Amino acid sequence: MTLPMVVSDPSLPAHVTIWEVGPRDGLQNESAVIDTATKIELIDRLADAGLGIVEATSFVRPDRVPQLADAREVMAGIARRDGVRYPALVPNMRGLESALDAEVTDIAIFASATETFAERNLGRGYDAQWEMFAPVVARARAEGLRVRGYLSMCFGDPWEGAVPAEQVVAAVTRMRDLGCDAISLGDTIGVATAGQVADLVRRLVAADVPVREIGVHFHDTYGQALANTLAALREGVTTVDASAGGLGGCPYAKAATGNLATEDLVYMLDGLGISHGVDLDALVSTSRWLETRLGRPSPSRVVRARTPSEDV
Ligand code: MG
To answer: Which fold has domain 17-307?
Structure first.
């Protein structure tokens, strides 16, 4: 039997763009420092598996995120396949200058929907973060770069508790006003449920945010990532963040485990007959290769299901 069996649902999008975040969001949360050659091979293998967007690295301060201190070397070493985008995170103007030197064409900024996480993660308050990002985004747009805005804590905050949907809508609007051409709604601590996701997407669309600009970034902390993804697809969302093998979480948010695994997403999309361009077998073999480099098994259920029992 070839799995998954395909039963399409005409109410869902015909195509989904998978925004692969493993080399950046995943590896930055590994306690071990991964060597540059392994990172380059990972990124090239993911592009070869059919991923059209592979977020490659982050131009952050090396003392803050030592795992990504080799951003320049990684960007210089990857193969840059035709038609594949390799975004890099930039936290500030210095990061943007480094990214431009490295010939990055896509950047991402990282903001918070809540005051407390803005202070803890960025070292400045909610309003001050926009002042910090405004010149960065303006300069990036002037250089012709694409700019994605990651928004953290869209569905709950470990310090503030519930995050009102109106607060998230206001933050997304601020990011679009700055010049971000795409938004990623982050469930940073993995507490969202499907109804909450659908409600937020509807509110954003009602506030004139084009649904094609909305991406979703779920963590599987409570086992809800795929259910939340399906809820977003039902509202017309067509960009979904995922991390190969389920790498990563968030280093500054307690109990934030498990990005949605790209393999688990691909399996669900395959079963629904939704095109995405990714070869599941190539992806699984990449994550199994990475297991040998990281010295621990992937938490992806699909990777586990596709691993012969004698290898576990
Ligand atoms: Mg994440």
So the answer is: TIM Barrel (3.20.20)
